[in-house]
Prior knowledge:
Elements lengths: L4 H17 L1 H17 L1 H20 L2 H15 L3 H35 L5 H15 L2 H16 L4 H24 L4 H30 L7 H10 L1 H24 L1 H37 L3 H29 L3 H5 L3 H16 L1 H16 L3 H11 L1
Amino acid sequence: MPITARDREILRLAVPAFGALVAEPLFLLADYAIVGHGLGTTAVGALGVAGAVLATLVNLCVFLAYGTTASVARQSGAGNHDRAMRSGVDGIWLALGIGVALIAVFWPLAPPVVELFGANPGQSEQAVTYLRISLLGTPGMLVVLAGTGVLRGLQDTVTPLAVAVGSFALNAVLNAWFVLGLDWGIAGSAWGTVLAQTLGAAVYLVVVARGARRLGTPLTPDLSGIRQAGTAGFALLIRTACLRVVLVVATVIATRMGEAELAAYAIATQVWTLLAFALDAIAIAGQAITGRSLGAGDVAATRAATKRMVQWGVWSGAVLGLLVIAARPVLPVLFDADPHVAGLLLAVLWPVALFQPVCGVVFVLDGVLIGAGDQRYLAWAGVWTT
Length: 386
């Protein structure tokens, strides 16, 4: 089938978005590989528990990226470039505020939160250490989300890719040095990730500040704009909370089954997340294209692009599923040397692979609806399916 102009536009946005999206799960996959080989199964299980808590907190705030993308794209499509940038600046201030609040709330709550997962004493101590250190990086992580949303809304997915690749490379080097070289244990893994993510956030702040200065957009906080950004993201918060409830419950169940089961589940979850973010690359294109087209009043172009992106979602899901099947014999060796964990992981990877085409369609339509500003539908769909 020939590549059309619409396909090229989708690929122009989706391919760089793919690299940026997979950076976060790659951070954790690198952590798992280094921790698994350097510290053992107990540490991998602890990382799984702490990672589930952090992923829940950060993913609940994904509206900072998705809501900002849609808002900036619609304003930009309508020709309101200053208002588009103002929406982005408000989103970044909201991200900083939420990040600081998360540190204040969850630092003292780290031990009881970890206990909810039913981890054994050895896992709990390491999980609390990893969680508390990683909390220091949440403002940076959330700024990365908001900054990414600004640039996606402006149809730029290349800059987020460059930042993500640089952050991932730095994260891998720092983790290997801190854990294996300096023997800092699981704390070293957390510090490496915090430093990499914070530097990535600094890059976004510089890029957005330059764009704001070109348009004459103030960088000072606007309380009404920040409040509006938070209100607009509430429905997306509900939608994401429903997704996270399912994953957290599954982590609790795996934790209570035993160390090997938890380690296998933790690794499989990161593989699933990596695949989900890969498919979400097309959804990111959907957010940007839908927001821009509807902002310009071009409904026909929106419908045509949606149909094509759904096709891309099915094809991409099928390819990813086949890749997982082909990689099954290798994946256990990469992340854990324990034979029991390897056997469990091999079994779990089958459903991970088979459901990828369905995931492709779901993610694409999710992105289209976000770009159209129909977050309420997504919130209700999340409530009913959970």
